[in-house]
Amino acid sequence: MEVRKIIHLDMDAFYASVEQRDNPDLRGRPIAVGGDSTRGVIATSSYEARQYGVKSAMPTRTALRLCPHLIIVKPRISYYKESSLIFRSIMNEYTDLVEPLSLDEAFMDVTHNKKNMPSATLIAQEIRKRVQSELQLTCSAGISINKFLAKVASDLNKPDGLSLIGPEEAVEFIEKLPVHKFFGIGKVTSQKLTKMGIITGRDLKKKSEKDLLRILGKSGSYFYKLVRGEDNRRVNPERITKSQSTETTFEHDLRNIDVIQTELEQLCHQLEKRISKNDLRGRTVTIKVKYSDFTQITRSKTVSEMIATASDFILIGKDIINSIDLKDGIRLLGVGISNLNTEEPEPSGQLTLRF
Length: 355
Ligand code: DCP
Ligand code: MG
Description:
This protein is of the alpha+beta class. The chain contains 13 helices and twelve strands. It binds 2'-deoxycytidine-5'-triphosphate and magnesium ion.
């Protein structure tokens, strides 16, 4: 099979950079885009603010404690969308195989491209220059042979950087990569792997596919291939997000309803973070529970309004959990949102852009 040339592009401190671009008073200063100090959270922060530890999804109150002179700016999503559209149109000049992951992030497959440029690195460099001159924003690029490595690569020289993981380095790179850097391996799983002495890709590679299926569940086969440099997921320009979810497996089965609800709250905050990145809203909340005997149930509730905040998910999620039989305890809890705004019918005669 032909070696592919995949680029992953990710804007730097996206919302905050747009704000600093549009308001010179904010340039060079620690700013955060987000809600107010009463109950708001930070969507993102400028790199100046990151030095103080101000991060995405942090309560604004905490952020102000870390950095008292932090400037809080209210989000202006329509402006971010406008820049995002231009960003995407620049990428589309090189190929139609552009798969946006959120407003500020996308994969491209430039193996064959409209400009017949043989070097993916040069394409990425050109795009970065154009983003700079047309949007006055910076972005970082990762170039490699598959989606997984391209995404890891774009993070290596952030902000305003580029990095290449070439075909000959791919396998060695993955072998050295700590398991917590693997997308799809969460905190609990990586702790579990660490306890088993699996610290890096190399350790993961020593396991048979059967072992990985046992340790990681269904995704075991995916990781088995991944550590061998194989990730054949294609760049899909048509992908529309239909649902978003997040789940966690506990180290010990949980029986106590208060503990379960606290876990639910954390999951709901993670879910909010995920969907706010994509500017998504939804109407159906689903709770997934796996019992100690590995049987699994899901229960959903649909509301009439589009919702997008952790507090709404928590309210509905708790309602669902209270109606579920917890039996002898649960080993996994998940929360998801569907019936998203991506599935809304388009108003007739009007062209709307999907995000
Ligand atoms: N976002 C959000 N809530 C989060 C995380 C992100 O609303 N919990 C929004 C704001 C970000 C944008 O999504 O600007 C893109 O997310 P990234 O994770 O790419 O973060 P940034 O672009 O801000 O920073 P980086 O330079 O690390 O990419
Ligand atoms: Mg970004």
